[in-house]
Amino acid sequence: MGNKAEKCYDPKDSTLVFVDEKAEKCYDPKDSTLVFVDVDDLDYCYEEFKSLKAKMSCGHGVTPSSLTNWCRRLLNEGSSSFSCGTCGAKWPYVEVRKMALLTLEEREEFEKTMAFNAAKDGLECKTCPQCNSSVARKDESNLCVVCRMCSITKYQRYEFCWQCLREWKGSRPRSDRCDNEGCTCVALDTLRTCKEIVFESLEGVSGCPSIRACPTCGRLLEHSSKKCKNLVCPRCTVEFCFVCLKITKECLKTSRHYEPCSSGVAPRQTSIPKWRNK
């Protein structure tokens, strides 16, 4: 029995640095860039975090943990940006990253989810990674975007990638990716790698992806029903067939709701439709 004894570090070993994986993130009281306050306005669950409380740009107080929890909730609800839960003021990601004391793992989690949510919603404006101003893209076929605000203040042309939100590298124009390492289209990767769905009422139908881009507006949708093959897009309100990707009224000309499509299963999409909302 003695052979099964667990090996343990000596708590008196001064050469070791012990860590607590559940330790709460706390502000440095000597950080002169922070304005400390008495109230945590985001501690909605009354967890009473031990960290000092600091003021956000909107004036409301937070702790690193309460801010992390609130921003993760926004991301889980589908948001691609951050705002105060008390006054609704917008927070730039660089501020959230600093004030939440995000770890490397949390930054990767947040940035991946932000990119996915932005692609899912088909946003036409994004935030410049340098000055945090809102920038619209005129040419949807070109990922290289110019920030006029930065170009004016820096007295030189500043370009960033619409996809990975980093300073542009490589030739231009480009529609697939820039030369920054890891630049990839999250939406297209999702369409390419998502699992397949099995329709209980469509015998013989296989190979249909579980996530499709709406053929009208491009919003990414996941089929939650295994019975009816049709789905109504919550953004453009157009009903389409998840199997053949035709508008429902066109699909119904040759097949019924619970029948295989005459044209078969449409292949995985390799581009995101652009919605012209007039």
Automatic annotation (TrEMBL):
Q: Which branch of life, at top level?
A: Eukaryota
For this protein, the record's PROSITE patterns field holds:
TRIAD
InterPro entries for this protein = TRIAD_supradom
Q: Where is this region: Disordered?
A: 259-278
Query: What region holds the RING-type domain?
Result: 38-265
Q: Which GO terms describe its molecular function?
A: transferase activity; zinc ion binding
| Keyword set, alphabetical order | Metal-binding, Repeat, Transferase, Ubl conjugation pathway, Zinc, Zinc-finger
For this entry, the protein name equals Putative E3 ubiquitin-protein ligase ARI6
Q: Which gene encodes it?
A: LOC115383738
